């Protein structure tokens, strides 16, 4: 019987490996190559108890500080659940021996998060392939494993350590018996913004959740106008109704530093944040320059920016380095609203995984689907919205507020021409704001049809 209560014809007892120094050393080397050689963490933490000695060896090999999670808080002294020296926001790689349902890792993650640590990556020796990986991913924790059960079975059959029939029986068993979601997955869709603000790691994400809750607005206005004066006029009229203003700074014909000063003043007066929809997409070095230099000096005034994940995680590393993550953040493009775009489901999945490596820099994702991610501290920003579903002549696809919020999981909804091109943008902004908020209220009350 495994810890998750699943009856199993196959059981791997990795507790015994402590008696074999050469096995311990080999496993440490393999885990190091898999998870620590190229990735940076402040700490490692083993899931008690089997993984503790492995975490110790890994910490020593990688010259990383180790944290120790207690199973129960001490009744005396410090009463700490996590022993070791760390500060809030430090990242921690979790080490585990075997994953069945993923519940032990989630217990450790929960204690680490309670102390303000960022814990969303784990490295394990054996994945029993019984839904643990999926349960963990649904809770925003991503695992790398040295072996899967099917790989081990193949090795055992190929080396005649077990019969072929036994291998087939175990594979059939694995296919039939999956672990239930042993720890309830927190569904971000039904959590109120106030609660999600507490779970966000990036401070701008926290602020955006709080602004939405205070202003009762999940409307992001895309001010796609080419005149600075027109933009400022529009924001004077609609600023009080929006939580976020999205710019394309490079389409403004009369851009000046004074425009930025006035935009910031309006943001302050009406309590909204500014998102520059720059969609960075170059190598890390170029993006650091595009973010901080040039005519626009985006980093000086935009609370957040958008970025593609296409060039690989160097782009996030660059933004993470050049940005002040206490006051700035990134929305990563995981999907697009336009018809025929080339983003595949693998690309979307890889984008979400990439974000998990830089949680302090990421506000959330520009995406179209509620299943794209589930981490409640991240925000789903969804463009391509008008009151009626339609299309424009250049491939933009519009869904309705009901569809994007109730069915597709949007947290913040981007509206551009639906407001900007209306006869009375002010009246239209109020209509969008009220409609979007009503949908959100319906969603969190659980009254989904
Ligand atoms: O997938 C995407 C990503 C970004 N956008 C941007 O949002 C607005 C939408 O404007 P509408 O006038 O409401 O069509 C625009 O600035 C796009 O660059 C997007 O539409 N789709």
Automatic annotation (TrEMBL):
EC number: 2.4.2.10, 4.1.1.23
Gene3D superfamilies tied to this protein: 3.40.50.2020, Aldolase class I (3.20.20.70)
GO biological process: 'de novo' pyrimidine nucleobase biosynthetic process; 'de novo' UMP biosynthetic process
Pfam annotation, one family: OMPdecase
Domain Orotidine 5'-phosphate decarboxylase: 218-432
Pathway stated in the Swiss-Prot or TrEMBL entry: Pyrimidine metabolism; UMP biosynthesis via de novo pathway; UMP from orotate: step 1/2; Pyrimidine metabolism; UMP biosynthesis via de novo pathway; UMP from orotate: step 2/2
Family per record: In the C-terminal section; belongs to the OMP decarboxylase family.
PANTHER family, A to Z: OROTATE PHOSPHORIBOSYLTRANSFERASE (PTHR19278), URIDINE 5'-MONOPHOSPHATE SYNTHASE (PTHR19278:SF9)
Protein name (database record): Uridine 5'-monophosphate synthase
Organism encoding this protein: Danaus plexippus plexippus
